[in-house]
Structures are given as structure tokens and as C-alpha cells.
Amino acid sequence: MVKALHQAGIEVILDVVFSHTAEGDHLGPTLSFRGLENRAYYLLDPEDRRLYSDYAGCGNTLNGNHSIVRRLIMDALHYWVEQMHVDGFRFDLASVLTRDEWGRPMRSPPILWDIESDPRLVSTKIIAEAWDAAGLYQVGTFIGHRWAEWNGRYRDDVRRFLRGDEGTVIDFADRIIGSPALYTAPDHALYRSINFVTCHDGFTLNDLVSYREKHNQDNGEDNRDGADENYSSNCGHEGPTDDPDIERLRERQIKNALAILLVSQGTPMLLFGDEVRRTQRGNNNAYRQDNDTSWFNWEQVEEHQGLLRFTKRLIRLNREHPALNLEIHLPDLRNGNGGKGQPTASPDGQAQEHIAWHGVKLGQPDWRHISHSIAVTLSGKEQGDDIHLMFNAYWEDLEFELPPCPGGGQWLRAVNTSLPSPDDAVEEGQEPAVDGNTYLVGGRSVVVLIAHRQRVTDLA
Fold first, then answer.
1. What's the CATH number where 155 sits?
2. How far does the chain reach from its first CA to its final CA, in angstroms?
3. Domain limits for position 90
4. Which of 12, 73, 219, 346 qualifies as a cystine partner to 351, CB 3.0-4.6 A?
5. Model pTM?
6. What are the catalytic residues?
């Protein structure tokens, strides 16, 4: 399988679970490590060593910083890289691996430095789910220089902004420029923030805009399992509907989420099937559903060709546009002037010239609690590598002032999520020019304009 994926140009990131085992709590079955050396392989309750400390939510916690467990983990990683040729690992509940034998978080956990510094893993991608099930949350502060991190704050803040929650604009703005408020260390890699709106845990993107509540009854736990707060909205009806207005809004919100994800600084991660509206019928914990709840329905590819094309176009834009791949750390909005107009420059003085924030008025971003909109202009290294992004989570249309296009050209409309396919994401080279110095952004819409160095005559 790995060989076939590589032949198709696809890298393989293996999801590994070194946080717990299937032996459960003290009443669970003896399958492996419990019968070998219980005290070495597991974290035990400091007050009753017959019991386990449970930081993984599954009854036990692997003692990742014990010498024998460190060897087990490293041997496993070496095998998967050298024998199976995987390209990287995503570590489930990676913050568990920062705990010592008493469950206390360590400043320099040996196992994590083993992984980071191992010469046999030097070309391997390493990704942390930088939290655990007991409340330890290390997004932005996970150790090391090579680790990328699932940015759970990105997920939650983008969802809340899309839903129309108040008091979300400044956090949303920080997320789309690489989360500098979280990643404050100057030596953090620019790819460190793994941005995502949905993942294998929780709602699919279709369900995020179709259900307000989880519907996990089929899991056999009386709907107690899975996250209770998903920052979701059903757009006016719980579950499937034939109402065309609700369906149009759901489709637009899906496009909004995809557009936001793919114009954000950092590394985007998409959940398979979101590009064709895969649904789990409101189940946000479908790991135990080996049926059509979790399977991929290939008929949806044909049914949602427009959304699939939209996603492909945004992926190409993300990969190719210089302003969406800036090679500098952008400044924290809360630093200095609070994000009004040009944010405070970074220590090297470069960031200021690469970013400008706006509201509906140029240079006047609205950070108020009641605000639901923001715009930003990002500039690449070369003149004409500019991109202008407008985000309107308000339910009414808003008219945004446009900055002058650099180089004497005109802005071209690349994306407008309020338009039907194929005008919602125009193919490269076919983008119509925008006439005038304002742009009307539809309610609950995202618009992406790209700079054109030469003046063109066709109008949007």
C-alpha cells in the first residue's frame, strides 16, 4: 500500500498511539505489558499503586519516559520508517509523553527528544496532538524544533467565527495568519501550525453545518460519548432537509470553511470526504461504526462535482500563491497597536510590509465584540504578489473598501463563495477583473482577490 501511494505522489503519515493500550483499567484483560512488568510499562496511581493513572481516557497510560518503553517506541518508529517506508507519524495525545512516572509534565521529556534528535528519523515528519485527555494542553508550547502540532485553537476559533458567535474576530484573525499569539518562539518552523476545521475525531464538515447536537445513539453509550460542544450549527433544521434555502446556506458554509482553511498561513489538513459532503449522520465519535456511517460513499463524488472542483482550485491557490506561503513570522495582533492598520513589525522589521488589516473601511479593522467581519491584504516578496482576503460572517451583505492594487493593475476575483459553481472559484488565468474601489461581499461569504500587474478590461 505504501509503495502504491508513493507511486501516486502521496506521502504516508502513520497515526500512532503510544498513550495507552487495550488492557484498560485495573479490571481490564491481561494481554501484554501488564503481565510483563506492570510498574515499568504503565503510570500507576501515586496514592494506590494497584490502580492506573488515566491521562488518555482509556483506563491506563503508557509510561513513555521509562527506559524500556522509550526503547519500545523508538524500535517501532524505526521499523515503520526503515521497513515499511512511511514518511511520518502523527502522535495521538502526544502530551501524555511529556509526563513522568508520577504523571507530572516535564520540561524536557526524554522520549520526545529521542524522537526529535534520532538520526534515523531525521527526514521523518513528526506531528503532535499536543494535548491529553486529562486537561494538559500544549498547543504552541510543545517541546522541540521539528514538531508540527495539530492546532485545536484554530479549529475552535474558525468554527465559532463561521457560526456567527460574537467576540471571535481577533482570535479568528490570529489563526489565519499562522497563530502568532500561540507560536511565540522565533525559531518555530512556519509549518508548525497544522490548521484544520474537521478531523477523524468529531463531525465531518457536512455535519458541522447540519447538526447542532451529536447523534451517537448507535454507539451504544446512550449518547454520552463524543464531544458535547462542537461549535456547530444546523442552519435552521437538524439533519437532512429538502429545504433549498437551508441547503444553499450549508453549501456556502462548507465552502467558507474550505476557503478559510486554504488561505491561512500554516499547514492545512482536510478530512477525507469533506470535499464531497461526506456525512456520518450526526455521529461525532464513529470510530466503532464499521458500516456506512464511516465508509466513503463514492457516489457522492459525482453528486458534488462543483464542491470537489472548488476544493481543487483552492488547493492549487494555496500551493502556488506567494502571499499564502510567506517565509516570515507575522506579528501577534495583540502586540503594540492591537492590529489597527499595520500591525507592529517583527524584530527583523519585515512583517509590517507584508500585512495590513481592514474592516469595511481601509485600515480600520473592527475588533469590537459585536463584529463579524475582517479583511486583510497580504504581500509576497515581489510586487504584484498581493492577495486581498475578505471574510463576512454577518448574515447581511457588507461593502468593503478595496486597497489600491500594486503595480498599477487591477484586482482579480479568484474566489467568491456566494456565487454558484464554477464562478465561486475561477480557474487560473480566467479570473475577472474587479471594477471600482469597493466590493460587495455577500452575507456569510468569503472573497479572495489576487493582484494583476497589468490593467485588464474584462469586469467582474
1. 3.20.20.80
2. 46
3. 2-317
4. 346
5. 0.93
6. 92, 129
